[in-house]
Each structure stands twice: as structure tokens, then as C-alpha cells.
Design goal:
Blueprint: H1 2-5, E1 17-23, H2 57-65, E2 67-73, H3 78-87, H4 91-94, E3 96-98, E4 101-102, H5 114-117, H6 122-128, E5 132-137, E6 150-153, E7 170-176, E8 179-184, E9 189-190, E10 198-199, E11 207-210, E12 219-222, H7 226-231, H8 238-255, E13 260-265, E14 290-292, E15 297-299, E16 305-307, E17 310-312, H9 322-342, E18 349-355, E19 374-375, E20 377-380, E21 390-397, H10 401-409, E22 411-412, H11 425-429, E23 439-443, E24 446-450, E25 454-456, E26 462-464, H12 486-502, E27 523-524
Parallel strand pairs: 1-13, 1-18, 2-21, 5-6, 5-13
Antiparallel strand pairs: 2-19, 2-20, 3-4, 6-11, 7-8, 7-10, 8-9, 11-12, 14-15, 16-17, 18-20, 22-27, 23-24, 24-25, 25-26
Length: 525
């Protein structure tokens, strides 16, 4: 508890509120603060064209006034990365090796649920710390075993490839002459470019509320009353709905004088079918237009009319591009900060921004170098006694967030329970010069690991990472170990000793029979 008591000026008697904004498929290079000379164009790939470069004045500000980690890693693709975030553990324990490569449950039937493999999840740790908890946005996993108090999901549980009464924005599979064909339910026609089955989470989204105080059931589809039905339509943007219900939750908890933990898993950054522009060649549907005047954001109210795949947006929505998604995240972070200030909690709230894996069409699902694993990590806590400011040339991992939240909430994770993350609090609040010695990622059966000097990627290629290249990725390959320093060789040997503990895809792919047995409980320090 010692670190917690040092954290907040004038607020040592109460744990800080925490908002964790976990963006989707965004490489570190997409944020200007990371200084990359390249980023992603609307069709995917790599460009240095400044018209496709994101503009993030708010994320830049909080990264400089708070701090950001130059080398933060996740896994290479969303499922395993979200498993890492939710459990603080790697795939050798939770068995989520890839999106379509998950270990079987102990009885051999179905995939092993994360809350069964890893009962001390991020939600359990936050609850043990006395937090009211809210989950907004993307789930991508069964949610029943996670004890979040409330939620707003886009799309809601079970809506993938299933019709719901509020919207026909979805791609679904249908059998045609014995073959599966993907149809656009909005146009009732097959699609003629590569995509995947999905429910709409951007425009006219599938929205489901969990345990909302106005609802009589645990799960309800939104809109669910006269007023919301009146304003819901083609111009309803899913990320706006998420934030609206998140703010409603925050306001209620502040009135109750209850600390809160918000786990906001935004879809922004993820490519998707553009229902408003089905012929678009871009990977990312547009967002509402916004403008930064140097002091504040303004947002253009979207206007959309039409049906059956033919729509008019009247110039209120941006063109395709991940840079627009990053810009809109910046706008939402600005909204968060304004809300904290309006509620008088800005000095007792910690805001964390990160992402689950590299950008689609560039790094996502790539085991090459750190393309798939390198993501942004920004920590902003204006009321916190941070000893670190701005860029931090250290290593961090998405598994570190659960131990960090445990420290903030004064929760002790039992020594008997393996947690692969390490709390960032000692590094952030003391003169500790280094956070951790190595970071680890995985891609199906491959392992990816790096230290301060060397890195091994999923293809077993070794790199000299002692200096960052301009594109954050093109490190020199080490082909002759006699031409690097003894320190490089020593670190290589240390990393080789680490990997076997986690490299269990071939030997322990599925859950052990009977699971892991009894788990010692979480306790307050």
C-alpha cells in the first residue's frame, strides 16, 4: 500500500478513479508523439504523406505532461491481446494463442473461458479494490464471468451475424448453392470485395446495455425508450453512444462518492465494412468531422439520409482513414478531460491510453520485428506525484495493467497466483530507472521477445534494438554475433532462458485436465 499512499496530492485517503481507454488496431507509429516518419494511408500499408498523418493535440499534451512509454508491447492480434489485458497473463496460462487458435476447456469441450482460466481478471481486481466498474465498447469474448457492474457494448453480446430489431447494418453468411456467401443485410446483396462477418459498430450501431439502472433486465438493446428511439438512426455513431453511457455512469458514481474503473475498449482504429459507402476502397469508415482551433474541439453534427446502400452524408462525415479514427480518439480524450474537470475529479483520476496490436494492413497479426506488438501507452495523472514526465525509454507490456490497477486499489495478488505483468507504480512514483528487463508477445505458435539491446521476432530473426530507426521498425538484423557487443550477446542468452517458460503451444496447447485447481483469493493490502 506504500506506493498508493504517495500517489495523489491531497487524496491519499481514497484510491484514484481509473479510466483505461484500450483502442483497436493502432500501432504506435500512428500517433505523432512517437515520432515515426511513416504511418498508414486509407487503403492500408505505409505512407509518409502528411495528409494522412493524425493530428492529436490532446494526446500529445497528456503524453508530455504525464508520460508515455516508447516501447510498449501487446500481442500481435486482438483476441490474445485482450486476453493479456483481461488476465495479466500470457497464452501459456489462458490458452488464447490467436483469434482462431484457442485451447480447449478442461473437459475438452469448447474454448476455455478467460474468467475460468484466470479468475483474477481485471474486473475482479478492480472490484476487490472497491471500484464501481463499467465496460464500454468491444467485447470479443464471453462476458458473463467478469463482474463488471454495468456496460455498453457495440455490438452487443450475440449480435455477430444475427439480426436484431434496431438495425440492418451487418454482414452475414448465407448459403448459396451449397457455398457460404457474405451478404450485406442492408442491401440484401452479396458483397464483392474481401471482408468478414460483422455487426455494425460505427454508424447505426448494434448497441446493448448491461445492468443499466433504467432497465428491468440485465441486457437490453438500445434504443429502449421513446426519446432514444426518436434520436437513433443513420447518423448515430457508435463511439459517441459508448461515451454517452460511460459519462452517465461516471456522473452517478461521483454523486455516490464511489471510486470508479472504466474499461473502454473502443472500436476506433479497427477496419470495418463501410455501410454508408459500400463501394469505398478505404479500410476505415469515416467519423463525424471535428475541428481543433488551438484551444478546443468543435464537432459537426452528422446528417445522413438514404437506404439500401445509397446514402448522402452532406459533407458531415470524413473520408476513410485510420488517421481520422485517431483524431476522433483525441477528441474523445478531450471530452473525458473536460468531464473530469466539470465533476471536480481531474486530480483524482488516472487516464491510460493504449491499444491492442498493430494497425490493420501493416502490423496486425504480423510476427515480423515488432510490427504486430508495438503499441502506444500513455499515462496521465495530473494529481499524481509522478517522478517521470514525457517520453520514457523503457519496456512495458499490456499485462502490466492489472498489477498497476491492483497497486492503485490497494489489492494484493497472492504469490501463489502467476501474474506475468509488473506494476508500473514503482517506476512511475520513485527514482527507479527501469521498469522491466524484457517484453514478450506471441503469434500462434511463435514467440516474440526483446530487451534493451536485442530482439527475437516470431520468425526467429534477431535484431539490434539499441537505437530506434526513423520508422520505429527497421532495426538492423544481427547476422554475425561477433560484430555486436558482449552486452548484446549476454542479453540474447538471458532472453533465450525466458522463452521456454511461455513457449508451450506444442506441448500444452489446451487447458490441463481439472484446470489449475483452487486459487487463493484477492485481499486488500
Amino acid at each position: 500500500m506504500a506506493f498508493v499512499l504517495l500517489l495523489l496530492k491531497g487524496h491519499a485517503q481514497k484510491q484514484p478513479n481509473i479510466v483505461l481507454l484500450f483502442a483497436d488496431d493502432i500501432s504506435a507509429r500512428e500517433l505523432p508523439i512517437y515520432g515515426s516518419t511513416v504511418w498508414s494511408p486509407p487503403k492500408g500499408g505505409t505512407t509518409s504523406d502528411v495528409k494522412y498523418k493524425a493530428q492529436t493535440p490532446i494526446l500529445d499534451k497528456i503524453a508530455e505532461e504525464g508520460c508515455y512509454v516508447k516501447t510498449a508491447w501487446a500481442s500481435t492480434v486482438c483476441g490474445p491481446s485482450r486476453a493479456m489485458m483481461m488476465t495479466g497473463r500470457y497464452a501459456h496460462l489462458h490458452k488464447w494463442w490467436h483469434n482462431k487458435d484457442k485451447g480447449k476447456a478442461p473437459n475438452g469441450k469448447g474454448n476455455w473461458n478467460l474468467y475460468d482460466s484466470s479468475p483474477h481478471s481485471i474486473a475482479h481486481v478492480a472490484k476487490a479494490g472497491g471500484y464501481a466498474t463499467f465496460w464500454a465498447g468491444k467485447t470479443q469474448m464471453s462476458i458473463d464471468g467478469f463482474p463488471f457492474d454495468e456496460g455498453c457494448f457495440t455490438p452487443g453480446e450475440g449480435s455477430y451475424n444475427k439480426a436484431i430489431h434496431t438495425t440492418d447494418f451487418r454482414l452475414e453468411t448465407r448459403k448459396v448453392t451449397g457455398k457460404k456467401v457474405i451478404y450485406n443485410a442492408d442491401t440484401n446483396k452479396p458483397i464483392h470485395k474481401k471482408s468478414y462477418v460483422q455487426s455494425g459498430w460505427y454508424w447505426k450501431p448494434h448497441v446493448q446495455l448491461m445492468n443499466h439502472p433504467s432497465a428491468k433486465q440485465k441486457f437490453v438493446w438500445w434504443p429502449n425508450d421513446k426519446n432514444s428511439k426518436k434520436r437513433y438512426g443513420l447518423d448515430t455513431f457508435g463511439p459517441d453512444v459508448e461515451l454517452e453511457f460511460t459519462f452517465d455512469f461516471i456522473e452517478r458514481k461521483v454523486k455516490e462518492n464511489k471510486p470508479f474503473f472504466v474499461y473502454h475498449t473502443s472500436h476506433l482504429g479497427h477496419d470495418a465494412w463501410d455501410f454508408l459507402n459500400p463501394s469505398s476502397e478505404g479500410k476505415w469508415p469515416g467519423t463525424p468531422k471535428i475541428n481543433w482551433d488551438g484551444k478546443k474541439y468543435t464537432r459537426v453534427t452528422p446528417k445522413v439520409t438514404g437506404d439500401n446502400g445509397v446514402y448522402n452524408t452532406y459533407g458531415t462525415i470524413t473520408e476513410s482513414g485510420i488517421h481520422h479514427h485517431v483524431n476522433y480518439l483525441d477528441y474523445q480524450v478531450w471530452q473525458y478531460l473536460n468531464k473530469f474537470k466539470a465533476l471536480g475529479i481531474e486530480n483524482n483520476t488516472i487516464f491510460i491510453f493504449c491499444a491492442d496490436n498493430g494497425t490493420s494492413g501493416y502490423g496486425k497479426s504480423s510476427p515480423i520485428s515488432q510490427k504486430g506488438t508495438h503499441v502506444p501507452l500513455i499515462i496521465y495523472a495530473p494529481g499524481m506525484n509522478l517522478t517521470k514526465k514525457g517520453a520514457q525509454d523503457v519496456l512495458a507490456n499490456m499485462s502490466d495493467l492489472i498489477p498497476t490497477i491492483a497497486d492503485l486499489g490497494g489489492v494484493e495478488i497472492p504469490d501463489s497466483y502467476e501474474m506475468n505483468g509488473e506494476s508500473l507504480i514503482p517506476f512511475l512514483t520513485t527514482n527507479k530507472p527501469k521498469h522491466r528487463d524484457w517484453v514478450y508477445g506471441y503469434h500462434k505458435e511463435t514467440t516474440i521477445i526483446r530487451g534493451d539491446l536485442v530482439m527475437k521476432d516470431g520468425n526467429n530473426v534477431w535484431y539490434d534494438v539499441s537505437k530506434y530507426p526513423k520508422d520505429l521498425i527497421s532495426f538492423p538484423k544481427i547476422k554475425d554475433w561477433s560484430k555486436v557487443s558482449e552486452a548484446h550477446r549476454k542479453e540474447r542468452d538471458e532472453l533465450k532462458k525466458v522463452v521456454p517458460k511461455f513457449d508451450q503451444h506444442a506441448t500444452a496447447h489446451d487447458a490441463p485436465k481439472g484446470g489449475y485447481g483452487k486459487v487463493d483469493p484477492l485481499v486488500k493490502k
